[in-house]
């Protein structure tokens, strides 16, 4: 199916609104033409009658003028209201489809797309699709219907004129803009690609502003951004120039239609075969027809950029999620024993498997630390436990049930993770705290906050839970953000808690205090600690040593300290 067809079928649920907008807009445009034409006829006829000393019936044309004026004004108002309604409904449909398509893809299947790129698809690209309906479908339909009515009316009056006007208006109003639309294709596609690229670069630049400034790379980055903006501007100017050329063509075609009318009708007026007032009526009507065609050039020159945006959106919708809920999910098991059986994960383009035939039991309530050098496979293991991805082979089970037989929502009510860089919403701190448990009672919040040692932080903040924090929690220190994330995880009530490098970036004392707070409080919970630091290992039932995706050793800390060089090394690096 072509991109345009597919796009149009996306708007099918709103077809009724779009059709209504087209009918009303056509009526308003025709009323405007009728108003000018009738006024022209009326004034000329009155003048001629005055000169000849005759009286004419002016009630009918006056009533017609009033009717056309009312239809024109009312029609334009109704058209705005209805086209906005249609547009907003369309946007809702398109954005909901995009969100629905995107959600199951995150995070396993969107790793190749940066945040900036995804945001562009959700905003700028979606807005351009809206323009397809607002700027292409509607104006083109109105122009076609209006020109058809003009030609039909002229055919009743003077068939030869109808033919000449048809050729002129179709050439100037549709053929020329279509050619210009083809010429605008490369620039239109550049606009879409360049907008996405620019947004991606800008997002990356803002995210990495400090290192860019500190390494002196900011100037080069600014220059690159400037070049991208210049390229975007050049492409936009090209499209605008083609659009303006099309508008000049439309105006010229209306003028040429007037010339054709003069050439063909003046002889008829001279011979008395046509009233002089009818000539004025036709000329003014044809001049007004330019309004119906005015939006066509912009529509056709803007379409390549919109189609390029549509292709970017369909590229998301066409992705098959590698992790999805089963058609018939099983109810959650009572037990929260976790087991990985012979699991293997091999990322594309990686020389070796990241997890290579790994088997591990994590009984409910146990405390297990998974240690290993960078790249050993700890985060991949966590991703499997949370079912952010599925193993290429092998099985992960919760209470004996394969995770693939449970819904992801159910699974995440049992297992939750505190990440290395927790996500903090921009807004009141309470929003971030209650993210996973919006209905938590004050007592529950207080208990979780206390257990995570976040109560002291809250007490220090002037507005407590109402304190505004930034997207990356900029107004909180690294340790405070980590405590907030732990409190949030505890608040969900999930019986399995995964801590991913909870002490990363913290001083050893803060790290120890934070891990102690969680472990001392959470007697019932399973705690899985992923780390390459020694803090907290002494409180773990078992330490699993991972290397190159395999378990190379496991046991209680004292045993490993006696025999495992990697674990010994962890403690030797202590200050
Ligand atoms: N999304 C991915 N795509 C491709 N390769 C990946 C991906 N995620 C991880 N890897 C690779 O898999 C291996 C294991 O990575 P993983 O992040 O699981 O290790 P880790 O022990 O958590 O490391 P760290 O302590 O540095 O976070 C590494 O070689 C890494 O490059």
UniProtKB/TrEMBL annotation:
The way this protein sits in the membrane is described as:
Multi-pass membrane protein
Q: Which residues form the signal peptide?
A: none
Q: Which InterPro entries match?
A: AAA+_ATPase, ABC1_TM_dom, ABC1_TM_sf, ABC_CydC/D, ABC_transporter-like_ATP-bd, P-loop_NTPase, Type_1_exporter
* Transmembrane residue ranges: 15-35, 41-60, 131-154, 160-180, 250-270
Q: Which residues form a coiled coil?
A: none
* Gene Ontology molecular function, alphabetical: ABC-type oligopeptide transporter activity; ATP binding; ATP hydrolysis activity
GO biological process: what's one of them? Answer: cell redox homeostasis
Domain ABC transporter per the UniProt entry, residue ranges: 338-573
Question: Quick one: a GO cellular component term?
Answer: plasma membrane
> Where in or outside the cell?
Cell membrane
**Record's superkingdom?**
Bacteria
Task: List residues of the ABC transmembrane type-1 domain.
Answer: 19-305
What Pfam families has UniProt attached to this entry? ABC_membrane (PF00664), ABC_tran (PF00005)
Which keywords does this Swiss-Prot/TrEMBL entry list? ATP-binding, Membrane, Nucleotide-binding, Transmembrane, Transmembrane helix
What name appears for this protein in its UniProt entry?
Answer: ATP-binding cassette, subfamily C, CydC
Q: Which organism is it from?
A: Insolitispirillum peregrinum
